[in-house]
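Quick review question:
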């Protein structure tokens, strides 16, 4: 990971993502920061953290990008071949690290990125 300045905004965003059991959208983060920094700063911090392998992006079933802490990633190698569950009721997105879906592609296809998202009703909403 490249050395970056550790700003208050970065520290607070990392704290929010680390403490959350679900992935957070930019709007969730901005609301939680309560005016600490502007929306552009939040986007820049999230992009930098994604680039550095600290967080990863997930597109939920509504097309909204949410962010979650990476557990075993680096800036050069991301391990996101786990399942993401998007609740249709509360809209929470959860990383399910213990489930590794598999797929087979035709020959001569090369996979660069994988985003597995399934939707339904989460245990809290059942």
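Suggested answer, residue by residue:
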């Amino acid at each position: 990971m490249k050395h970056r300045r550790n700003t208050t905004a970065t520290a607070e965003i990392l704290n929010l993502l680390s403490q959350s059991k679900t992935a957070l959208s930019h709007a969730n983060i901005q609301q939680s920061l309560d005016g600490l920094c502007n929306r552009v700063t939040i986007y820049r911090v999230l992009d930098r953290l994604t680039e550095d392998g600290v967080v990863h992006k997930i597109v939920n079933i509504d097309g909204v990008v949410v962010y979650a802490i990476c557990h075993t990633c680096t800036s050069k190698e991301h391990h996101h071949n786990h399942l993401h569950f998007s609740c249709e009721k509360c809209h929470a997105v959860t990383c399910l690290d213990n489930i590794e879906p598999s797929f087979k592609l035709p020959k001569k296809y090369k996979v660069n990125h994988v985003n597995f998202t399934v939707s339904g009703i989460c245990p809290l909403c059942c």
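Why it works: The chain has a mean pLDDT of 84. The chain is about 25% helix and 20% strand.
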